[in-house]
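Continuing the series of single-chain predictions for the mutant panel. This is the parent chain; the variants come on the following pages.
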Amino acid sequence: MGHDHLTGVEAETLKASGLLIGTLLGGMFVVVSFVVEVPSVAMTLFQYDAANNATGANPYSDIIALVGAVMLGAPLVWHALQCLIHGHSHMDELVALAVVAAIALGEYQEAGIIAFFMIVSSLIETRTALGARASIESLLRLTPETAHRLLPDGTEESVEAKKLAPGDAIRIRPGDNIPADGEVITGESTVNEANITGESLPVDKKAGYEVFSGTNNVTGALDVRVTKAGSDTTLGRVQSLILEAEKTRIPLMRLIDRYVIPPITASDTAIAKKSIHSLFRTVHPRRFCTSAAWLA
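Parent structure:
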């Protein structure tokens, strides 16, 4: 039931790990740009004396900061564009706008810092959610792929567990994982339900007792009447609740997305740039051109 989805979880985890590496690398560029601004460091590494530059800008620091800002800002801008194309409005679009405006105004370090903290916070949230989903999927992986269904004449047939339906009778041998929720018809055994109930010791089962999908039959054989199968089982409901909880946003975030984000994103670009200009206080719109001229 959850086996195909596990591949998606692993792929998203790998994607998040790659983004984390890129974020740390971009953050290093931004940090180095601050270090290069120190006159002694600039003189030692590049034989550059800021006193000889009329603008006082350090072109080497600017170029390094620009590289870091682009590395950090590109994922944000790409994500924001995808959200806008699909008609979604979130805080990501505002952050992307701030990063693009800061780069356009020559404030590369500020752009990198904004993007860095935004991506790090997003990665923390993503990795936490993926960890929860991976834990649930590890439980779902305990559900066997096949089951032994009992026929009216008392014989058995091997069927896929996902084809079981309420009312089917199945036989569970010692050591087998239980493929569906059900009620014991005949037999006595002990079942390890630690992954469902958290109990550390196996629980005795006999006729009339309930068993759960994904738990392990330890000792004797059991004949079980299926009561719930597939996504209706206890494990299936847990998975649905976890995935639904991931999609639920706290009330404050819903209010922000509904009443704050749309008016701002629809406002004039010049107003947004002016606000960012005031926020950063010092603006160097020609810094990149000056840096390129010095490096040339």
